[in-house]
Amino acid sequence: EIVLTQSPGTLSLSPGDRATLSCTASESVSSRYIAWYQQKPGQAPRPLIYGAFSRASGVPDRFSGGVSGTVFTLTISRLEPEDFAVYYCQQYHDSPQTFGPGTKVGIK
Amino acid sequence: QVRLQESGPGLVKPWETLSLTCTVSGASINSGSYYWNWFRQTPGKGPEWIANLDYSGNTFRNPSLGSRVSISMDTSDNQFSLTLTSVTDADTAVYYCARGTSGWYGKSWSDYWGQGALVTVSS
């Protein structure tokens, strides 16, 4: 199965900062099949990005997805207090679909 | 508004069978190009996909769980269900149902999720 690696494991930032999260796959994955989710304690994952670049319904435009070579990225342009959470990438290029271990964005 | 709600026992004994049901409202599980998924998650880890089925009842399973997993749908009640046999401590997790969209052959991203149900395996 395709293993996803996320970096950094933890990001300590302040409100208003820019956050850039990375996700790398163990095998080639089409950017058409990468998604990002946000999860807060005690809640289900919330979809943010699908197809590497497209925002899910209701997601603010401060969230954007990208790719640089073989590294997929999630950027939060200016952190709001509600953005401090754990973020997961997912690949649905190959079965089984898999998720990364997550990046925690915490308050500095 | 699409809503999903998991239900089932929160405690299962080792080597017994875990059964969960997901009730869907706001969408029909036997129409549209959607996949109806089960995931699980343990603390500090990303979600793990378990299995799904499509609107016509085709099923897809994670090979890591092998033949212990089965998934079925009840279109009259707009529900789908998960059965996991011979459970051990390693199956203790929060179980989520979710709707998959924009996918192919069972692979998709999930746009609507249930709130999750904690299932503990313990004697």
Oligomer: heterodimer
Total helical elements of chain A: 0
| 3D shape of chain B | globular
The mean pLDDT of chain B is: 95
Features:
heterodimer; A: 108 residues; mainly beta; globular; B: 123 residues; seven-stranded mixed β-sheet; four-stranded antiparallel β-sheet
Structure explained in plain terms:
The complex is a heterodimer of chains A (108) and B (123). With 108 residues, chain A is mostly beta strands. Chain A has strands at 4-7, 10-13, 19-25, 34-39, 46-50, 54-55, 63-68, 71-76, 86-91, 98-99, 103-107. The N and C termini of chain A lie far apart (35 Å). Chain B has 123 residues and is mainly beta. Chain A binds chain B through residues 1, 4, 33, 35, 43-47, 50-51, 56-57, 88, 90, 92-102, and chain B through 45-49, 60, 62-64, 96, 98, 102-103, 105-111, 113-116.
Compact overview of the structure:
Chain A is mainly β. Chain A is built from no helices and 11 strands. The mean pLDDT of chain B is 95.
Topology:
The complex is a heterodimer of chains A (108) and B (123).
Chain A lengths: L3 E4 L2 E4 L5 E7 L8 E6 L6 E5 L3 E2 L7 E6 L2 E6 L9 E6 L6 E2 L3 E5 L1
Parallel strand pairs in A: 2-11
Antiparallel strand pairs in A: 1-3, 3-8, 4-5, 4-9, 5-6, 7-8, 9-10, 9-11
Chain B lengths: L2 E5 L3 E2 L5 E8 L9 E7 L6 E7 L4 E3 L7 E6 L4 E6 L8 E12 L2 E7 L3 E5 L2
Parallel strand pairs in B: 2-11
Antiparallel strand pairs in B: 1-3, 3-8, 4-5, 4-9, 5-6, 7-8, 9-10, 9-11
